[in-house]
Hints:
The strands form two sheets. The chain has a five-stranded parallel beta sheet with strand order 4-5-6-7-8. The protein folds into two domains: 1-35, no CATH class; 37-190, 3-Layer(aba) Sandwich (Rossmann fold). By secondary structure, the protein is of the alpha/beta class. The chain has helices spanning 26-35, 48-56, 91-100, 112-116, 146-162, 180-190; strands at 2-6, 9-13, 22-23, 40-44, 79-83, 106-110, 137-139, 168-169. Iron/sulfur cluster is lined by residues 46-48, 84-85, 111-113, 118, 142-143.
Amino acid sequence: MGEITSGGASTRVLEGTEHGFATTRVDALLNWAKKYSLFQYPFVTACCGMEYMAMASPRFDMARFGAEVPRFSPRQADLLWVVGTISQRQAPALKRIYEQMADPKWVLAFGTCASCGGFYDNYTTLAGIDKIIPCDIYVPGCPPRPEAVLDGLMLLQDKIARGDRTPAVVKPREDPAQAERLVALQRKERI
Ligand code: SF4
């Protein structure tokens, strides 16, 4: 008998001559299905769109995570990608789209502008989409690297599997303060 653990729930799989059925919990099975069948609505407004396109391209291949299908009707999507700067004038349209999506739904802030307004510290720009809609995942970066966005997607999938709705921020894969090149540069400057 084998065991698969995902999102805190364990599934027992019968192997060898025992194969034929598996046992699990209904909510774990549903969460597993939701995790691998995300239909995205891309709300793309600015330069982060280039990185979004890179992520959907064969090199980074979002399709590997079962989340590549864009739907241009919010009623057919459950993952809202907010990609780029959101102006005060766009904010009502974004809120309307979020409200038109069916539950359960998730939101990912792609880049610094969507997360907190970025360097646009002015009256025309929304200082983060969480001022108008709930956000599940924040991906920092101007623009974020596709790897960071994929980390955000995997983080979201992990949260879906666990039924966890607490917002989370994608951490850098490498702490810039500890990066070898930067440390060497700092040492050189001290000499
Ligand atoms: S985070 Fe940077 S790259 Fe992305 S939309 Fe804002 S200014 Fe453009």
